[in-house]
Amino acid sequence: MAYELPPLPYDYNALEPYIDEATMRVHHDGHHGAYVKNVNAALEGTQFANLPIEEVLRRINEVPENIRTAVRNNGGGHANHSMFWRIMKPHGGGAPTGALADAINATFGSFEQFKEQLNDAGNKRFGSGWAWLVMDQSGKLQVISTANQDNPLMDGLYPIMGIDVWEHAYYLKYQNRRGEYLNAWWNVANWDEIARRYEEARGVR
Description:
three-stranded antiparallel beta sheet, 10% strand, mainly alpha, minor pseudopilin epsh fold, 50% helix, Helix Hairpins
């Protein structure tokens, strides 16, 4: 069954003033829409076409070599953005609570230190990519970054949250000020969804 572009869980302008309406329209309808179209085309007629995109990414090295790059880029883009829309919300921000907060404090020292590490990973990602909070196979949290639309599932890691640092995610509003965008992003973080993904990670590893 072909993948579909998921609707935004809020209006295009709902994340203002931190993420502008024009960016959300181009980012969701244009970029994410293209990833969905292209990964469907690449996988059509293969044994992977009916698998969840996350399973395809976990098995990326089994995907036929002639379509692997297209699936890596566009399937990764579909999975990454499907997560990205959900880990943001209007009137978000603040700090996590409960088990996720405890794990962040235990791993990084404090929430503020965690934010600094994730922002640093995003700022230092040369070119296009993502900054991630992931869980490894042992249950340990890590901050990493990936290039382009690579997803941590490709490396056996579980993505708990990721911030898009492609220029299309911020350039209309922030131009070359990626650091300003990263600082602003935390005002739309949806900690309920991120905590749900943390609990999911604990259950699937």
